[in-house]
Amino acid sequence: MQRPSGRAVDQLRDVRITRHFTCHAEGSVLVEFGNTKVICTASVEEGVPRFLRGEGQGWITAEYGMLPRSTGTRMGREAARGKQGGRTVEIQRLIGRSLRAAVDLKALGENTITIDCDVIQADGGTRTASITGACVALADAIAYLKEKGLVKGEPLARMIASVSVGIYQGVPVLDLDYPEDSGAETDMNIVMGNDGGIIEIQGTAEGEPFTEAEFAAMLALAKKGIADLNQLQQAALAQ
Amino acid sequence: MQRPSGRAVDQLRDVRITRHFTCHAEGSVLVEFGNTKVICTASVEEGVPRFLRGEGQGWITAEYGMLPRSTGTRMGREAARGKQGGRTVEIQRLIGRSLRAAVDLKALGENTITIDCDVIQADGGTRTASITGACVALADAIAYLKEKGLVKGEPLARMIASVSVGIYQGVPVLDLDYPEDSGAETDMNIVMGNDGGIIEIQGTAEGEPFTEAEFAAMLALAKKGIADLNQLQQAALAQ
Amino acid sequence: MQRPSGRAVDQLRDVRITRHFTCHAEGSVLVEFGNTKVICTASVEEGVPRFLRGEGQGWITAEYGMLPRSTGTRMGREAARGKQGGRTVEIQRLIGRSLRAAVDLKALGENTITIDCDVIQADGGTRTASITGACVALADAIAYLKEKGLVKGEPLARMIASVSVGIYQGVPVLDLDYPEDSGAETDMNIVMGNDGGIIEIQGTAEGEPFTEAEFAAMLALAKKGIADLNQLQQAALAQ
Amino acid sequence: MQRPSGRAVDQLRDVRITRHFTCHAEGSVLVEFGNTKVICTASVEEGVPRFLRGEGQGWITAEYGMLPRSTGTRMGREAARGKQGGRTVEIQRLIGRSLRAAVDLKALGENTITIDCDVIQADGGTRTASITGACVALADAIAYLKEKGLVKGEPLARMIASVSVGIYQGVPVLDLDYPEDSGAETDMNIVMGNDGGIIEIQGTAEGEPFTEAEFAAMLALAKKGIADLNQLQQAALAQ
Amino acid sequence: MQRPSGRAVDQLRDVRITRHFTCHAEGSVLVEFGNTKVICTASVEEGVPRFLRGEGQGWITAEYGMLPRSTGTRMGREAARGKQGGRTVEIQRLIGRSLRAAVDLKALGENTITIDCDVIQADGGTRTASITGACVALADAIAYLKEKGLVKGEPLARMIASVSVGIYQGVPVLDLDYPEDSGAETDMNIVMGNDGGIIEIQGTAEGEPFTEAEFAAMLALAKKGIADLNQLQQAALAQ
Amino acid sequence: MQRPSGRAVDQLRDVRITRHFTCHAEGSVLVEFGNTKVICTASVEEGVPRFLRGEGQGWITAEYGMLPRSTGTRMGREAARGKQGGRTVEIQRLIGRSLRAAVDLKALGENTITIDCDVIQADGGTRTASITGACVALADAIAYLKEKGLVKGEPLARMIASVSVGIYQGVPVLDLDYPEDSGAETDMNIVMGNDGGIIEIQGTAEGEPFTEAEFAAMLALAKKGIADLNQLQQAALAQ
């Protein structure tokens, strides 16, 4: 089996994390997983949504979108159609839930951080790139809150990252690009913390069901990939 | 650790599957997982959605809803609010995707089966009960198509079932009811075929990340639970 | 003239009223008019809508829906289409208006009772079955408020019930089922109190206009039918 | 009892029917019931809605709206709020249903006439004025179709008109204006043909239920009022 | 070049401004530019929108609509389609912005005046007629506020009016009607104050770009037309 | 008067035009007017919208959006709110109309080019930057059509560009950035072709009306600015 990109089965695409990509947001990151490019911003607002008022804790929420021509064929603009599609809703719920696992919401105080992940170019793995980039933007936004004295203690509980794994032509592979993704038998997205804990697993058999052994092989690949991504996040934050 | 319901850690709730629950649908099932009650119907229509025309295959799609007072506090009616919430969208996508894995879409021919899962009473696990009940309704709808001579061959590739597992007070448990679900540290929904293959895994750490060992324990519980559910499905279909 | 069901012209279908049908609502009734089956729940909330604040009175409101496959052909789900159809809006306004006539809103105090009528199987007369069943659920919800000491006095002013009448093949008949309803020349829905007062009359000539004599004959049938329904309501409440 | 307007109990307001009020529509009428003023247009289009294609018959449909400041206090514009309210939906369904009873849809051929009733000034009875005025606009539109040779035979089966009746301070009265309407115990709208047949009756007890005797008294008033309105329609069409 | 209407190139259509056209609004004007007829109302409400609270100033906002059959072919009703079209949004923003330039918002105090412009018959130039008529309705609403002692000082800073100009068959012309508008090479709408100041210019080349000389010729025509309109406004207000 | 940026009154911001910014679109440009950054893509599709079918011509349409955190304070995402705001609608109509003036639609044949302008960072002048950048993307998309032999002749009639001008502290200035824009007395956006023709003028007095002399001064600045932008467009296309 030869991957379309020529990569080894356990090899990530070239990953780049550019901080301070736009100038207004408290955290702003351009994350690139090969040709997949996502702008991730973290916006700080005082206060919390109504359902949390008076609970003495903060909130993290996320929204996701794709520019209409981020893909090979132009997709209709969700704002023009008047609603977000099912895939968008599912992805932004995943991003928000995952990033809440990166944060000690009590330590955040009554502040809300809104994550926006906007895909400007898509080539597979946009949700995993989004989570990985957004966690860096989130770290910058939390640093801003600490600098301004708006939080005490440390709201950032851990760094998290995410990668996809799948079975492509019978072989487990790491970090699927679009040609692999559209032909994969099984597709799994995993989110883990830099402490090795599992935060989210979403695996789907596209055609035939998969076995526990295949599952185990994919999980092993994901652990390696996420460890690599954690290092790239640290390197970006160290600059 | 004592489960609120007094069940053993690997014990399902009382599960009942009632076929022919309403009279119009080609497949109509009331599924009960304890106090969780869902009406699952399968509706047959000739033809396929636009994106599949001329492909010589069929389609399975699903919609999910909860009656406003299926829950302890009345929820706003989605039809009145003018849109389906994110949780609804996520669940109905999961149901549809899972049931497509039960079917050989080529053998189905250019027919569409629409699954409706409507929760009339909720006590945790509505999505797993929905999938389990809907597969029986689907089997009835496929039997209808065969009887009428509208399909040749066998579109039903396998029976599938679904159950939740979780970590409750530090202990892995099977088939969480609402009191367990709302206090669980980790919640995982698994869909498997009666051939033991995995179709979907969705696991989420609600608070702290979970370990691979915890994951393995939950997966073992799920396999047992789904085997039990497969037997109940077969018994219902045999009547 | 032979009715499709073989019933006498002044004969109701078999009517069953099952209280405590689901477990969460303060009032929960399954009402069956032959093959028409509707779940009616009454949900109590403290407080009133904005337009009544400070008026020292309560409010009754209603919502109506049909499960997509409650009918012979699957209907699109209103939540998915993003709006309630005209027929739904008209019916839920009728249900709410009628039930407000059953209640002394001053005696209800600043409480709101929301009625949900969800049709799980349709065979004509869903709005009349809904009103008849909902009034029993309403009585249970008011009993709950009295038991909890949340109201003083008696908010239930009268029991109300509803039935359809029509001209079928030139003959006035009571309680039309779907085969009669779809062929009727005139269709009328009447809501009356158990004190014999008229609360709502809605009569429509489907084809030719109808005469005063026909109107009088239909009204006489409706009075008889509603008296029968009042007895069935009382019997259900007495259990 | 003195009516606020000083009218006799069986006296209509001053009614004026102005044809050719605007220049583009095939039928265009300004109808005035005292201070209630409605522009009614009838627009002819070839073809029928999808559900009637190939049935060899025509269709009549209606839409209703109020200018935001047709009322004492400005109402939000429905187009801006993004949906039509329940009252609007109910009224436009009534108008369409009533006018279909004025027409032989087979004789209309595969043509659609759309009625628009737009209230420019409201003082009670907007729906009855709308139906009364719209039938004149409809007659003009049908005359247009006949003149152009687009229909054969006579699609206009009868002229229809509508009026409200009610119980005001214990006394049955005809054609309620806003001060009466807002204080009435019972409010009924009746649509009748010029042949004396009843097309629609919608009666609602606002507070206490009403009796059959009260109903009969109101019906007698309505018959007189509608006969008067039929004459005014004929006079307008004769000009 | 002959204008379709036979008018001189610098000649307005017959313009009529009828005050007190409907009875409920604080200002109500029917404005006619030839066959274009628009009902303009100005509604006074105490208070200001949220974004202005506590700023010690008032607000003017506008909404625009067309009756479905104000045009040659019936347009879909925006309330039924569930959203206002792009042209509507653009026009109502223009009307609101222009009328704010007629008012000293500080002197208005914390009051809001909502302008509604509803086109009952269209023949080109509906937006310019709307602005011209609305300013008279606005003046009446401000007079009402002064009479009631609800404002001190003079909120009306100037009267404004608007007219269209264009290049029709190579010749600059004033106040285009529909036959001219649909064939014009360039179309420009200008809003000016009665002090000669320019408030808004919106010029669009429909086909070929236009030159500065053409622009200057159109501007000169507009100045003349607006001066004429100012006089007609004054005459109407003097009655 | 000192401009906040220190620029001369007739000086553009640093303008950069980067072609081939994303990889999927037929034309893809990042345009920067100082800190304002917009991704402009041009997407080619065969066929035309319904209203143009069979007319033997093509179509150009445009959509505009801002990333939620392209601005100093996060704006709500239009896709999440379920509708595009009035400002968005107005801008995208302007972009589409302007670019149609750059193209010979007959020569384009039955092809549609959709322009998407997505603001990733905003600092004033997003609509003028969008038009200027989009015209370069459009030129690339047309070159693609010519290369593929999908059009004959030359659909690109002219290059167009756009710039804002305004009166800032009493002085006419070119290309306003956000600090100037939010304080300007008058704001005008002008679109011109590289042949010097005017395509669109939209000028608005924010506070006091402006004079013809001010208008003339602004127009002169705009002509200079657009000539500079035309050169930058040509330089970009020459690379």
Automatic annotation (TrEMBL), chains A, B, C, D, E, F:
GO biological process terms held by the UniProt record: rRNA 3'-end processing; rRNA catabolic process; tRNA processing
Domain Exoribonuclease phosphorolytic: residue ranges: 11-141, 159-225
Broad enzyme group: transferase
EC number: 2.7.7.56
Lineage top rank: taxon: Bacteria
Reactions it catalyzes: tRNA(n+1) + phosphate = tRNA(n) + a ribonucleoside 5'-diphosphate
Entry binding sites for phosphate: 87, 125-127
Coiled-coil segments: none
Annotated GO MF terms: 3'-5'-RNA exonuclease activity; tRNA binding; tRNA nucleotidyltransferase activity
CDD domains associated with the record: RNase_PH_bact
UniProt keyword list: Nucleotidyltransferase, RNA-binding, rRNA processing, Transferase, tRNA processing, tRNA-binding
InterPro entries: ExoRNase_PH_dom1 (IPR001247), ExoRNase_PH_dom2 (IPR015847), ExoRNase_PH_dom2_sf (IPR036345), PNPase/RNase_PH_dom_sf (IPR027408), Ribosomal_Su5_D2-typ_SF (IPR020568), RNase_PH (IPR050080), RNase_PH_bac-type (IPR002381), RNase_PH_CS (IPR018336)
Sequence similarity: Belongs to the RNase PH family.
Binding partners and assembly: Homohexameric ring arranged as a trimer of dimers.
NCBIfam families (UniProt xref): RNasePH (TIGR01966)
Function: Phosphorolytic 3'-5' exoribonuclease that plays an important role in tRNA 3'-end maturation. Removes nucleotide residues following the 3'-CCA terminus of tRNAs; can also add nucleotides to the ends of RNA molecules by using nucleoside diphosphates as substrates, but this may not be physiologically important. Probably plays a role in initiation of 16S rRNA degradation (leading to ribosome degradation) during starvation.
Name of the featured protein: Ribonuclease PH
Organism in which the protein naturally occurs: Simiduia agarivorans (strain DSM 21679 / JCM 13881 / BCRC 17597 / SA1)
Protein's gene: rph
